[in-house]
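Progress against Task 2.4 (sequence-to-structure conversion) is shown through the following example record, which the project officer requested during the mid-term review.
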Amino acid sequence: MNLYIKLGIIALFLCSGCNFPRHEGDKSKEMELKSFTFPYQLEQAEAVWHLPAELREISGLAYVNDSTLAAIQDEDAKIYLLSSSSGNLLNVYTFGEKGDYEGVTMVGSTAWAVKSNGDLFRVEQFWQARPVVTKYTTLLSAANNVEGLVYDRETNSLLIACKGKPGLKNGEKYEGFKAIYSFGLDKLKLDTTPKYLIDLSVIEAFRSNGTIREFYIKATKKTGLISDALFFEPSGIAIHPLTNHLYIISHTAKLLLVLNRQAEIIHIQRLNPGLFNQPEGICFSPDGTLFISNEGGKGQGSILKFGAL
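Structure tokens generated for the chain above:
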């Protein structure tokens, strides 16, 4: 069944972080939503790591182990291993040909990568000179503009976030939404119905609201990021290891969205453009430490580290 995600109301968006009250009926869900506290202070990073030139266009981030993160950039089929304590580049492993790679995630010791056209790559033993690489062509296409990938242990699947068109070719259009699809690892097949649908109608209403528009333009002018794009377009997705909530970032809207497994929005967090010039990657360590990567644009790419409060 499709899960439709409402992105809040204007009054709640105006606060630095927003908890979303829900309809009456399910008291347990209502209590969860009312008691949720966003566990990070995103105005103050624990660490900021500036990355080498080859990671200026870092486009995806994943947790590997206690000492290592994996990153990918959107030009080469390479997996970059970085220190999770310093951000230093440790190793680089090539697994294929050049392409627009937008996400990376780990399933055990196996890496998975995704292109913007929806092609998936399973990279076994990626640290070897000749890794075992298997390509899976999904029904997604360049029109969907895939920008996020994460492994979901709960369903043993890969969640694939689409920045572009939500519908598949010749299928339902899902106009006014952004889609997150599921690729099951049991059958190695894409579910043709989106796992989650993000409703953009409320954010569209923000565009005609003077207060929101004034805030956004002032914020973006400070960093030269002038844009009218107030749509929530997913650019990265992660699953919190302790709460199982989904964390979805959008570099166009400069927002971080938190939703529970009933697809209910429980928090919206604004991202300061001064820190998050182009957030593209997001992941967690098992203790809940949050990592967010930024493409560098004309400067350096970066990774920001946030400990849980």
